[in-house]
Amino acid sequence: MSWWWPFRRKEKRAISYQDVWGSGGPRLSGVGQERALRLAAVYSATRLLADSVASMPLKSFRAGADGSLRPGLLPPLFRRPAAAGTRYDWLHRCMTSLTLRGNAYGLVVAHDQAGWPSQIEWLHPDDVSIEDNLAVVPVWFYKGRRLEPGQLFHIAAYTLPGQTLGLSPIAYFATTTDTALLAAEFGRDWFENGSTPAAVLETDKVVDREAAGILKARFKEAAAGRDVVALGLGVKYRPISVPANESQFLETIKASANQIAAIYGVPPEKVGGTTGNNLTYTTVEQNSIDLLTWTLRPWLARLEEAFSLLRPPSEEARFNADAMLRTDTLTRYQTHRIARQIGLNNVDELRQVEELEPLPGGLGQDYTPLVKVAADETEA
């Protein structure tokens, strides 16, 4: 990621939402990443990552006098980061750009009174260019217009040493996606033609042009209606296309889904692939833990560090990854009991997790471990 903020400015909006996104209308040409998104595995993988990250609560922490981080009020940037849509939409756009193009470009369009960004609009990657990808201090252009230092907020994924831009997974694995798309198109054509491949009608007899035309017409008419074909004249049907079971296009699609899952680090079974072994998850919670640990955590760490650069050094942005873990009621209550016993949480905090009101009179504010409470009562 790259970020340079040499100065701070007072509140202003020099570029409007319309300046960034335009007035609407189609802009996708159906090539590149848009073409790749037509592949179910690519769409599923990028959607899984974008949906998972965007659905996590984003919180702000402030360093206390002792250096420990404590929850703080959300700054405007994390409450309403863009002019259109919600924070979920904003995070989703960021992740979609990162997973498809390896880069997310944000135009800083507003600042708070302290000079820190308060609103950022994500730009279409095709509209952003860089003067020198190897430069220590990059010079950015938006639709051919040079941007001032600090106007562009850039997050990169899959970066090579010495370079500013991230690598695009779709561009670097174009062969994988093209193979899968060709297999899908073959399957579509196969079923669109009624599973009837191109063929040759053979006979030992001499057939003139008019008779040949009649034979072909009769065969096409019967094949289109899935009817029995009676051609006569000793005509035999010989297919010349590769049969579907021999082409193995379904196996090709599954193999491509596994490769795409490996590229994005997502479980193959979530994008139409197969695990290739008998591994099963014992619980939904364990499934979520594995997805969070091996797939989402690197993305969360990358975004947390990038977003923290948009705030003062004493503040940090963090995702609440625990919100993704869904447990059954018994397990959740057992966890609450342990947390209260060791003094990790007080009763009011645990009630808040269950969306309940605090106990009256401050009775739920005590953090004293229950073991110590029991010991004190025994001594008394």
What does this structure look like?
By secondary structure, the protein is α+β, with helices and mostly antiparallel strands. The protein has three domains: 236 residues, no CATH class; 43 residues; 54 residues, no CATH class. 41% of the residues lie in helices and 14% in strands. It has 14 helices and eleven strands. It has a three-stranded antiparallel β-sheet with strand order 2-1-11. Strands 4-3-8 form a three-stranded antiparallel β-sheet. A hairpin with a 5-residue loop joins strand 1 and strand 2. Helix 3 runs parallel beside helix 10 and helix 7 packs antiparallel against helix 10. The chain is elongated. The chain starts with 16 loop residues before the first helix and ends with a helix. This is Portal protein. Pfam families: Phage_portal. InterPro entries: Phage/GTA_portal, Portal_HK97.
- On the 0 to 100 scale, the average pLDDT is 78
Q: Helix content range of the residues, please?
A: 40-55%
| E-strand count | 11
User: Helix/strand-derived class?
Assistant: alpha+beta
Low-confidence stretches: 2-31
Shape: elongated
Tag the structure with descriptive keywords.
380 residues, alpha+beta, 3 domains, three-stranded antiparallel β-sheet, 11 strands, elongated
